[in-house]
Amino acid sequence: MNPTEIQRDAPARAWNEAFPLGNGRIGVMAYGDPVEALFDLSESTFVSGLPPPRDRVARAPKGAPEAFLRARAAALAGDFAKTENELAGFIGKKGEYGTNLPVGRFRVKLDFAETAASAEVAASADAESTSRRTDYSRILCLDSGLAEWGCSAEGGSLRWKALVSVEYQVLAIRVESAKPFRIELSVDDILVPMRSVARGRDLVFSAAALEIVHSGGTSGTAAAGLARVIPLPFSSGDDGEAAGCEGMTRADIFLALETDFPVASGTRMAKSAQVRSFGPRPGLGPESGLGPSGRCEARLREAEAAGFELILERHEAEHRKLFDRVSLDLGEGEQARSALLFQYGRYLLMSSSRLGSPLPAQLQGVWNDSVACRIGWTCDLHLDVNTQMNYWPAESTGLAECCEPLFRWIRERLVPEGRKTARSFYGMPGWAAELTANAFGRASPYWHVNIAPYPTGGAWLADQMREHFLYSGDTGFLRKILLPAARGAAEFFLHYLFELPDGTGLASGPSISPENMFVDDGAPRRASLSPTCEIAVIRETLESFVDTCRILGRADPLASRARDALARLPPFRAGSDGALAEWSHDLPARDPNHRHQSHLLGLYPFRMISPELDEGLARAAAASIARRTTPDELWEDTGWARSALALYAARLGDAVALERHLGVLAGDLSFPNLMIRHPPTRGAPSFADVYELDGNTGFAAAVAEGLLRSSPGGIELLPALPPSWQSGRVRGLRASHGLSVDMDWESGTLLGCRIRAARPAACEIRYGDIRKKIRLASGGKLELDGELCRGSGHSCCGALPSRGSALDIVPEGT
Questions:
Q1: What is the pLDDT of residues 34-71, one digit of tens each?
Q2: How confident is the model at residue 288, as a pLDDT?
Q3: Which of 76-80, 274-278, 491-495, 596-600 has the lowest mean pLDDT?
Q4: CA distance 646 to 658
Q5: CB 303 within 8 A of CB 170
Q6: In this predicted model, what pLDDT tens digit does every residue of 16-28 receive, in sequence order?
């Protein structure tokens, strides 16, 4: 099995069999029918709802801060029923919240001339017959971002290629046949009505993102699309209908798709959209002054002038620049499937979030299965694990640039709205964002006490900025991007925390532990003081702010207050059952097998709990996981929740459990196209399985974590190598301190590694019981054998490193 190709021998018959293509804004599901090619279209900014402040219903109810303080007093008294009653005057309202919607289905139909030979080609390409033939093939090339399919017969062959270009912002398709054909373009409705008209070689279409499940049915962005047939060979004078659509054996089809989604105030979208690997493109975002239709026409002119070959060449080079940074070889069989799914997770993140993308990856990346937008939890940006998990493999697997849309959205949309939330709902300074957020950055509390208050969602998401600095060491990023976000979140938390009446320390809340409940006096309750997950996020945020000020040499009075608060936060603790406590009380969970495990944030993604730091807490975390997943048939098994289990196992060094969880993800929880599913559960009902990006990205992050673990003090090699991965090699995994690591192992034992430094680095390398401190200059390289000695092929005294790349060589002046 090639770990960078997904191959099938029949066209897709459903969304979950189709191949995903994407450029960080446009998402396409390619079905692969050779005669009538189908492409389901999505666009990240095709959303219903209204942006604030136009959505007036989203504002805080009158007296919300006072209601919150009354709820706090009730929680202090242990009256959780009254706590919920008071919170009814605090929670938000749904209003015109909205959702992402699918745009529609694009069809490219081929009609062949009535000859015996061409009829045979058409017959061999029929969807009903291709599944029984061996000459049909369909391939998604992860390393090139290209989908190919086709078939052959005695009369000749029929071949297709498709990609979605980041640089040219179009879906580009090429079809080649042994016999002449005529092309018909059309679009079909999926959930919203489509309007279309054929004009010569063009198909012009439009749609509006209107729905009544998550908004009132009258608000949403408008989309315009333009598809064009380019017969080959092509002359610019061929603009008639017949010349443009008939008698071809080869043709290109380009499709552009744009919306009127508003640019955030003060955004530099035009500049960021031009940061490409191959030079600037004309500014064609909303800031250009062109409407969606005008931008589509401009995109098509660019694509037509460039031609498919150039677009493909530049697309593949730009794609490989990111994808080829990391390779993984685990051998054959199920091990190869794990390597494939690792690369697939990277591919899906690359396709969903790229430099200049208008929005970060939402619940489904950049695709829309038409299910998530019709159920209760909607197709948006969940801030209680899903959006965070979307980006967890970014740093460790060499895709740091993919975080740029996330950081920009936090800075330009979430933080400004979060300031309003902090002020109007809590009566406090700083910023806070709650459990769900939409494309416009809405940060207010959810509209039901089941999952509100939860003021730590935005701060947890923004912690990805700290992770970026841990890996990059970019002090410019630290000063300009991380510091403002961390300081604002810290300012809110320092006002949100309060002194316990007995003077024993600080507490927070009332708030929830997503999305679980506890039982008090026979009734399910949600909100209480200082839930473990909330204290973990507050601790991480305050530490991030203090560390940032220290590194930048800033004497900030707020940082002094943060240091004092850190010393007085509630510690992690084990409950009476030995498991890590989820709440500050010992009341039982309503659902002990709940899919959410928010109280384990200190284990992953934060680095507060580990066997090295505190064996007792690590055992308590392991006991909590065992309790959640026992008995197995009661565990709410979903893609993202199983990926979380894999990540916890990797952090705990439990290689056997890591292998088991990855196996479930690669098996029962995978769709036929290997996108990982979220089946309906008792806590998250749905009328069908839902695709979520986080299952795939969580898989990739877990594989990376099992092979290479980063911490502020150093890195650990093969900390949780699954038992069946006896031999393998990995190239280009990223670690903290700006390090890149290659490793080879056989019979489960490290043979050697190569470490490269992108910046000056001094840290400890660990493998098993072996420890080694290293110091590398920027650009330095170091080769170690399986005993962490310099050189390779020798157990203890390999050749000395060459000058200029050795251990203990540092740049002048450091």
A1: 999 999 999 999 999 999 888 877 789 999 999 999 99
A2: 62
A3: 274-278
A4: 5
A5: yes
A6: 999 999 999 999 9
**d(C-alpha 105, C-alpha 13), whole Å:** 14
Token pair for 736: 């903290």
Exposure of 812 by Cβ count < 10 A (0-12 exposed, 13-18 middle, 19+ buried)? exposed
pLDDT, average across residues 672-685? 96
Closest CA to 122 of 147, 152, 148: 152
For residue 575, CA distances in Å to 129, 422, 534, 586 come to 61, 32, 17, 7
Cis status of the peptide bond prior to 453, with omega within 30 of 0: yes
The span from the CA of 324 to the CA of 91, in Å, is 47
DSSP string, 629-684: TSSGGGS---HHHHHHHHHHHHHTT-HHHHHHHHHHHHTTTB-TTS-BEE---SSS
- Say if CB 187 and CB 196 are below 8 A apart: yes
CA distances 452 to 395, 432, 435, 456, 677, Å, are 31, 13, 7, 11, 26
pTM of the full structure? 0.94
* Average per-residue pLDDT for the chain: 91
Q: Closest Cα partner for 102 from 356, 401, 362?
A: 362
On the question of pLDDT at 239 being above 60, the answer is: no
Q: How many C-alpha atoms does 619 have within 13 Å on its Cβ side?
A: 7
Q: Which helix or strand (DSSP H or E) is residue 348 part of?
A: helix 334-352
Q: With the C-alpha atoms ordered 604, 566, 501, 488, is the resulting torsion angle positive or negative?
A: negative
Amino acid 687 reads F
Can you tell me the distance from the alpha carbon of 109 to that of 120, in angstroms, rounded to the nearest whole number?
A: 17
